[in-house]
Amino acid sequence: MEGLYQQTNKQVHEVQSYMGRLETSDKESVHLVENEIQARIDNIFSNLERLEILSSKEPPNKRQNAKLRVDQLKYDVQHLQTALRNFQHRRYLREQQERQREELLARTFTTNDSDTTIPIDETLQFNESLQSAHRGMDELIGSGTNILQGLRDQRVTLKGTHKKILDVANMLGLSNTVMRLIEKRAFQDKFLMLGGMALTCLIMFLVVQYLT
């Protein structure tokens, strides 16, 4: 398990470095970088499935720590996946704005003997609405990032508290039944955190649908 864990952890750091290349990539290569990052993230998720199975087979005295390490990797890669999707959404909005601008500049205006009609107000209004939606999305993404960071901080706190409880439990020689109850509570806390993250992403998606 240790070898696979180290390999997966290295892959997470590599994806983090690849994320920095997105902002500096040109239009022709940005899609290639996005595809490369997504392929690496998919590979990490595959490794995490194997790690979860292996961690459940660890000796009882090492099992809890192994699961916590795997959970940390899972949180990190989920954060990277969310960051990639946010970048792709911002890129899509920028490209849409550029297409609208180019269509506006390329439009041929017609004239007749009585008057000259230039249907530009509606297009400008749409472009302003699109820019407003873009700003709203940036603010929403920032709020979502803060929420996810808060969840992460809470998880770190819970992990530290849980470790202390396990240490105290080992010192006091608590029964196996109590230890299993503690592990069950930690498992439930993990799903509560994941549920909160999923709900946040769903709210962001619905707001994007509404704004656009």
Which structural class should the secondary elements be placed in?
Answer: mainly alpha
Helix content: over 70%
The helix/strand order is HHHHH
**Terminal Cα span:** 46 Å
Beta fraction: under 5%
Mean pLDDT: 77
Largest sheet: none
What's the helix count? 5
Task: Return Rg in Å.
Answer: 25 Å
Number of distinct beta strands: 0
Low-confidence parts lasting 5 or more residues at pLDDT below 50?
113-118
| Global shape | elongated
Function: Involved in transport of proteins from the cis/medial-Golgi to the trans-Golgi network.
GO molecular function: SNAP receptor activity; SNARE binding
Main location: endoplasmic reticulum
Keywords: Acetylation, Coiled coil, Endoplasmic reticulum, Golgi apparatus, Membrane, Protein transport, Transmembrane, Transmembrane helix, Transport
Can you offer a commentary on this structure?
The protein has 212 residues and is mostly helical. The chain is 86% helix and 0% strand. It contains five helices and no strands. Helix 1 runs antiparallel to helix 2, helix 1 packs parallel to helix 3 and helix 3 packs antiparallel against helix 4. The longest helix has 52 residues. The protein starts with a helix and ends with a helix.
